[in-house]
Amino acid sequence: MNAHESALLEDLNPPQREAVLHIGGPLLVLSGAGSGKTRVITRRVAYLVKVHEVFPWRILAVTFTNKAAREMRERLVQLLGRQANDLVVSTFHSAAAMILRREAEHVGLTRSFVIYDDGDQLNVVKRAMREAGLEQSMQPRDILSRIDQEKNAARLPEDMEVEPGDERGMLVRKVYHAYQERLRAANAVDFGDLLLLLVSLFRKRPEVLENYRRRFHHVLVDEFQDTNPVQYALLKQLAPPPSANLVVVGDDDQSIYRWRGADVDNILNFPRQYPGAKVVKLEQNYRSDRNILDAAYEVIRKNTRRMDKKLWSDRPAGQTLQLMLNRDERMEAQEVARQILALQREGFIKFSSMAVFYRVNAQSRVLEEGLRLARVPYTLVSGRSFYDRAEVRDASAYLRLMVNPRSDADLLRIINTPARGIGDTTVERLTDHANTQAKSLFEVLSEPERVPALNSTAVKRLRTFHGLLKTLHDFAQGTTDAASAVDEMLRETKLVETLVAEGSDESNTRAENLREFLGAAQEFDLNRAAAAVAAASQPREEVPPEVDAAPLSADTPPLQAFLEQISLVGDADAEVGEGRVALMTLHAAKGLEFDAVFLTGLEDGVFPHSRALKGEDPDNGEEMAEERRLCYVGFTRARKRLFVSLAQCRSLFGELRYNPPSRFLRDVPPALFGISEQDVPEPPRAVATPPRKRTWDDDDGPRIDRSYSQTSDMDSVSGDVRGMRVRHEQFGVGRIVATDGTGPNAKVTVEFGGAVGLKRVIARFLMPG
Ligand SMILES: Nc1ncnc2c1ncn2[C@@H]1O[C@H](COP(=O)(O)OP(=O)(O)OP(=O)(O)O)[C@@H](O)[C@H]1O
Ligand SMILES: [Mg+2]
Which residues form the UvrD-like helicase ATP-binding domain (predicted)? Predict the structure, then answer.
């Protein structure tokens, strides 16, 4: 063993080593959280380069978030130094975007295509519906989500399967068709297209695919359990069964993107798709203290359809989990902040090693307030928010028009921003005219006098606007960096000046954001320049003549590359600042680890999400299984300390709710919380009845569990009454199976005996049975 080899292998356990040493062909690493899957991927890449002398440009490593990709790249730079520059380490979407840009002309686009986000998509759907006279037929949002589903499933409009007589299906297909045409006309794609168009191009033009197969001899995928069919199709194209060097690692228990079409069966069936695949299981967890690991296992083992894999650990049992019972969400935020400060002071845990998770974004506002009041430094890990601000979106729309004037959605966004006296009627006439002429708005703007029914002032204003766009477009043709394009755009459009002139605090902040946007472009240029220098100074190996080994984005002009980066910023991408606590959704927490984790909102209806509580058999439903996996992901992010918190009542989405404690809490043995059986916030708990109606709060009925309400000074009570025996005048005795709402008018579903069966009744008509 030479020095490289031993350095790369020494801190791996035997199965990890086996995965790194695996000679070639398909390999599946399937194992629980924190067992070193991601470590295996990075080590294997380094080993291929250092020991097997595989050229770095032959390696494609993909993962799910930009943040994870960035971490992986940083790790590889440590292991490989400059050689890491030639690796392709990226997300599915950004790898696909880079390849699609190179092959744009094959799919009816130009290299300047822009990437539309949800907001743009919705506008395009609306326009497509309006044109087809289908405005009233269905909600545009519903249609859009159906279109997204089709794309995740790798189906173009013509591939959509619609049963005869399925009118909604036919409608969706029609709009989908019109929508795709509109995108093409605007030289735009949406997120789903990045993968779908590439997959269908590769299907139709095998010789194009062949170029990439010749290049990428090794494909590695992290978090494989979350691939959807279109992503899997792409993998199979690039690394075809049965024998390609495709390494996938993942954990079926951490599949949490079903709602985006992810299919957990992909990982379970991998050995069938790639017969002869080597399967490696990792069983040692290196991340979490044993109490945390045990709690996580107790939660996940309740899922019926899963591969059982219990992890072991030689870490200490560690401290017990801590249950935080709060009166309401404000107190929850305060308590989280208080505990964070105590951990930092007494537990010597750095702010940057702590995280607060929540199930839905709406919870973050109050948590943020709590942290701010207590002066806890934090970062909200939601990368989009900056680029989603109205003024930043306006600026991006101008930039996109600079490279692609055909982008109607962008043009409509800024046609009167800043205000230039172009009113709605004018815009309507302009779009009607463009539709009848089958031209882009930019094209018809060049001859505004031809637009019917416009007065001379309107014509004049449109002409001036066209002149502005033309100037910007021409400027973009000659520019060699992103920042000067942004600078020119801000100058010509007077976006900043207009805001400053408004003079309010609000508008000043928005002006600052635009300056920050310019700063982002400058930073982008610097990074790009540094990468170019690094690439140039590196000795290039002999590249076979038939292989294109250039960096995938080498030919992308800087402004386009900058815009692409903005478009692909995902929800989980914000850098967590130094010395700050990270605040994020559970979905964004995948793959990460922290010394201390706070999991908030452990209430039925919040987490598990209310959506999963609907339906006949909530405990076995697919949605509930997914919530459970999400809980497992949340628990297993923690190395040493895990706090779970809940509130007795909570305002969320503008309504006040009294949710029962989360069922996931009941799965964790009380000893792991360091409490005894009686102290668990368990049913029977009091029902949603105000105090003056003491029907269920008498001695026989359930009452408020004092341990649960210890922080409460409320006398109104609520809770989980499922399983409770009740009596109804007419239907007799039964058991509550579900509740909807709170208070005496809550609707309660009761399973009555005999022929009566399930009934939904109003709570106040029930008595304890
Ligand atoms: N053999 C090992 N010896 C020591 N530490 C290890 C070993 N393998 C992994 N680790 C450490 O354990 C932690 C978890 O590893 P890693 O993130 O690779 O796990 P994972 O399986 O990818 O987790 P997840 O399922 O959450 O994505 C990391 O801090 C990693 O450095
Ligand atoms: Mg991982």
Answer: 10-289
What CA–CA distance (Å, rounded) separates 562 from 489?
Answer: 14
Listed residue (364, 330, 319) closest to 711, CA to CA? 330
From the list 669, 646, 655, 652, the residue with the least C-alpha distance to 720 is 646
Same domain flag for 366 and 454: no
Question: What are 408-434's pLDDT values in tens digits?
Answer: 999 999 999 999 999 999 999 999 999
Return the residue matching tokens 């250092």: 50
How many domains does the chain fold into?
5
Rg (CA), the chain: 29
Total Cβ atoms within 10 A of residue 362: 14
Q: Do 36 and 172 lie in a common domain?
A: no
Question: Does residue 594 share a domain with residue 631?
Answer: yes
Q: What integer is the mean pLDDT of 435-456?
A: 93
- Cα–Cα distance between 154 and 233 in angstroms, integer? 8
Nearest to 329 by CA among 746, 645, 93, 103: 645
Q: How far is CA 398 from each of CA 114, 235, 252, 558, rounded to the nearest angstrom?
A: 12, 35, 43, 16
- Output the CA 43–ligand 1 centroid distance in Å: 12
Do 395 and 378 fall into the same domain?
no
For tokens 């002398």, name the residue.
53
Mutate to test the pocket of ligand 1, among 28, 249, 255, 286 (most ligand atoms within 8 A of CB): 286
**Atom 9 in ligand 1: residue holding the nearest Cα:** 36
CA torsion 86→87→91→96, rounded to 10°?
70
CB contact set of 184 (below 8 Å; sequence gap of 6+)? 108, 109
Residue 101 shares a structural domain with residue 242? yes
Q: Among 53, 30, 44, which Cα is nearest to 72's? A: 44
Q: Which domain holds residue 753?
A: 724-768
Does residue 41 sit within a domain? yes
Nearest CA to ligand 1 atom 6: 286
Q: How far apart are alpha carbons 95 and 702 in whole angstroms?
A: 57
Which of 529 and 340 is assigned the larger pLDDT? Answer: 340
DSSP 636-662: TTEEEEEEEEEEEEEEETTEEE-PPBP
Catalytic residues: 37-38, 222-223, 254, 637
Compute the distance between CA of residue 716 and CA of residue 648 in angstroms, rounded to an integer.
10
Are both 331 and 259 inside the same structural domain?
A: no
Nearest ligand 1 atom to alpha carbon 637: 26
Ligand 1 binding pocket (C-beta < 6 A) is 11-13, 16, 33-39, 251, 254, 286-287, 591, 593, 636
Q: Does the annotation place 507 within a ligand binding site? A: no
Structure tokens at 670: 């009380």
- What DSSP assignment string belongs to 521-582? HHHHHHHHHHHHHHHHTSPPPPPPTT---S-TTTTS-HHHHHHHHHHT--TT-PPPPTT-EE
Shared domain for 348 and 416, answered yes or no, is no
The CA angle 30-33-40, to the nearest 5 degrees, is 60
Q: Is the peptide bond before 206 cis (omega within 30 degrees of 0)?
A: no
pLDDT tens, position by position, 341-391: 999 999 899 999 999 999 998 898 899 999 999 999 999 886 566 788 899
pTM over 0.80: yes
Name the E strands within 312-410. 322-328, 354-358, 378-380
Q: Are 759 and 748 in contact (CB under 8 A)?
A: no
Residue 470, CB half-sphere, CA atoms under 13 Å: how many?
A: 11
* H or E element in which residue 101 lies: helix 92-102
